[in-house]
């Protein structure tokens, strides 16, 4: 069964395509994708992310900065700890689709 959608203004389509490309460009890095995978499950501290993912602190900080500057994650400080969480609903939706396609099937040999 074919879905029909109302026509979309080409300028709206171009703006949407630019936004999607920007999101996918940020996610097209293995470390950032792993961070987003973990954060899609809930808020975590930098130390927790480092332990869970095995990404060394300097690299992790660099990738978290990219995610924060892109508006994909937000931070919360509690004492000396900084906690990160997903701040972008579109990114969370993309992560859900990626999980469903690549991680939900236990016969697939990938780590998410």
Structural features, described:
Helix content is 56%, strand content 12%. The protein has helices at residues 10-27, 30-39, 46-53, 57-69, 89-102, and strands at residues 44-45, 73-78, 81-86. Strands 1-3-2 form a 3-stranded antiparallel β-sheet. It is elongated, with a radius of gyration of 16 Å.
Task: Provide a brief overview of the structure.
With 112 residues, the chain is an alpha+beta fold. The protein contains five helices and three strands. It has a three-stranded antiparallel beta sheet.
The level of helicity is 55-70%
Report the strand count. 3
Largest sheet: 3 strands, antiparallel
Taken as a percent bin, the fraction of beta residues is 5-15%
C-alpha termini separation: 33 Å
Main sheet strand line-up: 1-3-2
Net shape = elongated
Number of helices: 5
Poorly predicted regions: none
Structural class: alpha+beta
CA radius of gyration: 16 Å
Features:
alpha+beta, 112 residues, single chain, 5 helices, DNA binding
């Amino acid at each position: 069964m074919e879905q029909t959608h109302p026509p979309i203004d080409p300028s709206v389509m171009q703006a949407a395509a630019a936004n999607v490309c920007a999101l996918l460009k940020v996610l097209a890095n293995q470390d950032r994708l792993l961070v987003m995978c973990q954060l899609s499950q809930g808020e975590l501290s930098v130390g927790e992310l480092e332990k869970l993912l095995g990404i060394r602190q300097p690299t992790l900080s660099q990738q978290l900065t990219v995610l924060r500057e892109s508006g994909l994650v937000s931070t919360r400080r509690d004492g000396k700890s900084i906690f990160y969480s997903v701040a972008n609903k579109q990114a969370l939706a993309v992560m859900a689709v990626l999980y469903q396609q690549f991680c939900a099937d236990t016969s697939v040999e990938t780590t998410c």
